[in-house]
């Protein structure tokens, strides 16, 4: 039987549905845009940093909470964490912990986010109830 590949070659793992096929690596810039689209309704402002260099393995997101607090977030495979207390600011000496989701991170930073998210959830549930679902 003939084999098309050498035995030492490894197969590239399949990407998740929202992953761009980059040899099994997620493009963090695309992940950052998806995160922003998910929670923009519950914060005052949120965008990918234009002045900090994002790459395949890291992206920086600027967020202003409903309380008007500004943060610079770092997104990596490890998760999201605060790296600065102003837009486009990275403080290498900060040792904040990683959050697995943007929801967890924003919930810990912003009571206004928590309220907006809860209200949106209640509105959605009420809409489903009215539609008989």
From TrEMBL:
One of its GO terms (cellular component) is cytoplasm. Residues 28-128 form the GSKIP domain. Pfam families: GSKIP_dom. One of its GO terms (molecular function) is kinase regulator activity. One of its GO terms (biological process) is regulation of canonical Wnt signaling pathway. InterPro entries: GSKIP, GSKIP_dom, GSKIP_dom_sf. It comes from the Eukaryota. Belongs to the GSKIP family. This is GSKIP domain-containing protein. It comes from Mugilogobius chulae.
């Amino acid at each position: 039987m003939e084999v098309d590949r050498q035995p030492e070659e490894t197969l590239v793992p399949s990407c998740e549905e929202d992953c761009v096929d980059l040899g099994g690596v997620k493009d963090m810039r695309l992940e950052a845009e998806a995160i922003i689209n998910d929670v923009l309704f519950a914060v005052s402002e949120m965008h990918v940093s234009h002045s900090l260099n994002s790459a395949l393995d890291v992206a920086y997101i600027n967020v202003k909470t409903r309380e008007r607090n500004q943060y610079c977030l770092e997104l990596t495979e490890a998760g999201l964490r605060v790296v600065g207390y102003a837009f486009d600011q990275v403080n290498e000496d900060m040792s904040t912990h990683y959050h697995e989701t943007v929801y967890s991170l924003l919930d810990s930073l912003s009571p206004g986010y928590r309220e907006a998210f809860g209200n949106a959830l209640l509105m959605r549930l009420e809409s489903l109830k009215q539609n008989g679902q």
